[in-house]
Amino acid sequence: MPSLQGTLELTHLEGVGLLPPAPPPPPTQGAPAARKRGGAPAAADTPASFANKRLKKMNTDMYYRQSKMDNNAVAASLASVGEGDDSCGGSGVDGWWGLDRIRSAMVDCSRREGGGKGGGLTNVRSLLTIIRELDGGGRKDEDENENGGGVTNCRRGRAVAHLLGFKYRSYAARHAVAAAAGGGNSIGVAADGAVASPSIPATVSAPASGGNVVFPRSLHLSVAYLCARGILDPHDLIPHLVVANTAIDAQATASATAGTKVATTLMVAHGAHCVAAVERLRRLGVVSLNAKNQGDGRASNDHAPPAAVSAIFAHPSFENDPAVVIFRALLALAGNWDVAAAFLAHAAHGPSFAAKVIDSRVGDAVVAEMRSEMDSAVSAACTLSEGVASDVCAWVENAIEETAQFNGNGTGGRRGSSFPSSMASLLAKDATLAEISSVLLEPLLALARSGRIRANPNLYIKLCRLFARKLTKINPESIDDDTFSVLSTFLVPSMSLFQSDTVLPGELWAVLNNLPYQLRYKLYSVWHRPGLEKVSLRIISSADVRAGKVLKPLNNIESEIETGIAARYVLKRISKENIIVMGRKLAKTSHNNPLVVFTDILSKIESYDNMILMMVDTFQFVTKLGLDVMGYCLLVSLGGGEDAGQKNRTKMGGLNTEQWLSSLETFTGAFYKKFPFVEMRGILMYITKRLKEGHASELGILRSLIKTVGGYGFVDYDSTASLSDLQLDGRRGSRLLKRETSSFGVVEDVNREASHQLRSVLQGGDLGVIILIFLSHIRSRVLYSKSSDTVKQHVKVIGNMYDNCEAVMCLLLEYLSDSSDDSTAKEKYAASMPSLSDLHKKYGVDTAVAWMLSRPLVKPTYLSSTASTPSSESLTLFPEVASKHITPTMFETFYTLAIYDISCPDDRYSLDIERLKKDCDRLIQLQQGGEAARGQMSMLAAAAAAAGGNYDQIRQATAFTKTHAMQLDRLKSNVEQLSNDFQRQQNRCNLVLTKLEANRKLLIESEVDDSMNDSFASAFMTYCLYQRFLLSPEDALYCAHFVKLLHKIKLPGFPTIELIDNIVNSVIGSLYCMTEDEAGNLSIFLNEIWKSVNSWRYDNDAFASELKDSPGSRLSKVFAEKTGFHHHALTGGITHDDYKSLYNQWHKKIGSAAIGCLESAEYMHTRAALIVLSRIVSVFPTQPKIGERILKTLAPLQSEDNERPDIRATAQGYCSQLIKARDEGMWKEENVAVTRARQEREKMKAEEKKKRLAERHEEMKKETEMISRQLHEDGRDGWRQDRRDGREERGRPWGMDLRHTRKNLGSPTVALGSDDRGWIAKYGIAIGVIGRQRVGIIRGRVVSPEGKEESEVGLQNRAKTPNVRIKNELVVTLVGHHHVDLALTSSRVVAGEGAEELAVLTE
């Protein structure tokens, strides 16, 4: 018995589950003649009758005269066969023993019957029973196996296998003899005299010595047919194919490692093919400067392959390799993929594959290794043989024929197959997606790895449509592993193999569109791995390449490299002028490899942010699949890929965002604004994940999405310190008033579809609320969590991160709760947001933020409720300590209301409505035309002319266009809406005021004797005001106006004076421990409070009408004793003199705290003090002593020695504001004599300075005249006729001929004079631009900025047009010692004819 290392039993494959049970043999129409008794002989010469004749003739010799051999001899003979002994020569079976003569005859008969066209194998069925009987198996064994009562005879088919194997060896030996005799015959004749079929070429092996070995086609068909009928185990042929391969190819044994003997050199050739392909791909796109010119004159960048590689491609094809052709025949006739693939793997890998089957430790790992070897063998065969790939494609088409409902007859063969097919469709019509994927996984994997699927796009389209239809019938989120493997290894990566068009991406998108974005991004990740273009080539070792183990199919890598070269070619040439043409070309390159193109685009955007809008316009030509891949690439670039966290997100100091992240933030907003249907959840989930981990560096992305995509840029702000008074007034009003005051009349183009899409994504799955809760948590984590043990973050960095989280949280809350565009926004927000008590207790959100998040939901209930008692939800957040001093009603009222409810900006509404009406009237005049519109048309014409417009553009600018009509409609709508908002807010404020008046007794609980509560002021400041006014500018305004409102309604027991004292004490302490935005919020709150404090101090009427005899002027007993006031302050309130004393104390405290911060070495102390002082400069300081001390403290901060440029700039700005306020009389307590003396000193300094400038001007004028005379005497008239070129045009200034270099011009004559504001030059040379033409200033007369005279400067136009004159006042600054930089303060350029005015820019 041959060793199992040389042959593989079919039963072992069945044992490990790789092969299904062999089908039972078809029933025969009659028994063999040897077992019939009394039956009549067959009339016709059928195969059975022919076999009967042979049996009668050979009966005596076979059974009576043959000398029987013992079992040991048989075993030794078969063992020699397994070892590859070729001592039989060319005698075949008859050279061993005569036992198998009858079997050989039956096989030859079956070959003759099956060798013709048209599927003649069906006529051989009558011989199958005879072969089974003579091969050691009987009907009894088959019946037992069918009934489960016995085990298949392991000897069944062994003799037939050896007979067929000896046939292969016989033809191989015959070729070896002919080759040795020098007569290698290229046309082989079978033993039965049949010539190979002309339609299907006879198989030819690949001998190293040359010549062809012909194996008849009928021989391969017989093997496949007998295997299909369960008579033959194809693995028993492997030893004979090894012997045949060794006999015809001496190099096969030499090339085998460790004595391994294989039936085909498929894997060796495939490894050599991979080596050659990798070398070629590494040179692809590399330009060699030393390359020789080709015949067409171009230099080649591809080197010739080495000789060893060339020899591989000179090797004959594997189209005729016997093992490969048997694999193809098995696919066609047997139809069982595992049987055919296992045979090819055994033939290609040799005994190593057989050893895994008989291993007693067979498990999942061994099965996986066997599957891998089977896949690699089939992939190698498809790569090296186009016929194998065609048969695999035909097998797949036949398998899905019924399932996909394609038109086909199902019989007589398959499209692209070289063999007739007897297999039916493997998949039923109602097969599930899991069943389809399980059957097709390995064939499709081989097609994808070999790249042969590119030759059959129709099959790809059929598969895409089949999977798209099946995915609609299941839950796409629960697809099985086989389906995902088909998608990730075949459908998606195979897109790179086809030509770049829009058809196949559309078919693939029809499949992927049914999947959730998580699965799609996972598929793109597999497509991306292990890298794009040549990255995967760099990380693979040479040994793996020689073994054919590549990380990514080489055809995919080649396609990616070619796409990258084409994309970079277009990117180098794209511009705003050719964006349509080049954009289409760039989009076309991305159709089959979007990952390559978009990754390259994003890498360039990270460095050049001026490409953002241009690239966004280009994406309009990209397919839907490409746009979805763009979303994935953007996520990977932001850090959501496998290399997350590799790039720094902040600069070295940690204060500013890195350029790449800042550019991607801008691009994200612009991209999703134009393409809102592209998946956003991936990026939002990535931001959520980062927030959960405690990282806030990606908040700029969320901010950009809300501002640009959501259209809420008017709500956002850079910092609270940058908000003007006008913007703060707008934030007290409606949403439209915020927009009008924030953008200063600039209309922002809002994509409502994009805004709706973003809001729906944030509302889906409670994603927006989850982000809000994470933002509320990360604020404290930023302050108290330690990022690293070695790196210490600057307090400014921590403060900026904290402020950024606070600003984004307010922005997102405003966006989610706004129902102006979506009427159901608040309902969806309420459905997602936990209750107020859960936010505080379950999710750990602090009191002020919990109220802020729940305010849009709580406030409507509060305003509509008539109950005077607070809700149970609000009581859960009410501190037990505060309950002793503050009533629950006061606590709930304070945290429920907003600035919109208690303060209406009447003046701001009126001003904006009036402004919009004026704009409407202006457009109406322009629409009507006539005399009234003449002035406006002149202004528009002048503006168009100044911008360089031509005659048609100027006429177009003065016409009433469609844009003007749209603007007029918008203005009319805004006027009407603002008027309605004004009325609505007034009604709301009146409603709140009425409710406060009704609950005034419940807001504060006074003492029994109506005296003030000693602890109310401090408790109200601690648990209410201080926690809220630091959150946002709106909350700061609300806190100040809420205090004013309670004082205005004269709420009994409300201690206004004590509350102001607590505010001052809180300010002087918090200046040392707050961020920049918190300082800005504090400054807004303090500015509003201090306006009233100042008016009560310096306006007796205001004190008498607003504070005197009011409940707020009364003091508690503890506070009165502390300040030393008399008993009257407890009952009647303080007097104006008492108030002045308190004011002086408050003023001194704030001034001392501010000066201490300015003198501090800590950055944040100084920064916070400057922010607060800059905001309250109009109300503080009012006492000259404090003011002078502040000015003295600011002096070192403004010097050039200060290493903090932002502090220096802020200090200089505040100093200018403070001096201006002082000069305008803000220092109300300053002595009149001191003020007058200071004004006199400043006046004398101004006159002295003016005198010095006049003297300097006279000196420069004399020098100018002297130099002019010298130039005239030298004959260098700057405007004389240029004689060197003989032109008749106007004279060109000397020294400016285009043929002259800068060196020929020489150094200009420069006269310098200095003062406080810069340098003055009398002559200079500079470069300017008029329109699109560059000019050079070659002579001129420049005066000082203080002079009243305009200078006329001569210009030379390099475009050879008439002379151009420029009349300007020039501010001149020194650059080095020989060059003067001219900066224009006014630019009016008149051409030679005086026809048009152009803007000038000088360098």
Automatic annotation (TrEMBL):
GO CC annotation, single: nucleus
Principal location class: nucleus
Domain THO complex subunitTHOC2 N-terminal: 586-664
The keyword Cytoplasm is annotated on this UniProt entry: no
Subcellular localization, as worded in the UniProt entry: Nucleus
Annotated spans, Disordered: 15-47, 1239-1294
Keywords for this protein: Nucleus
Record field: compositional bias (Pro residues): 20-29
Residue ranges of every copy of the THO complex subunit 2 N-terminal domain listed in the record: 452-584
Domain THO complex subunitTHOC2 C-terminal: 884-1218
Protein's recorded name: THO complex subunit 2
Organism field: Cyclostephanos tholiformis
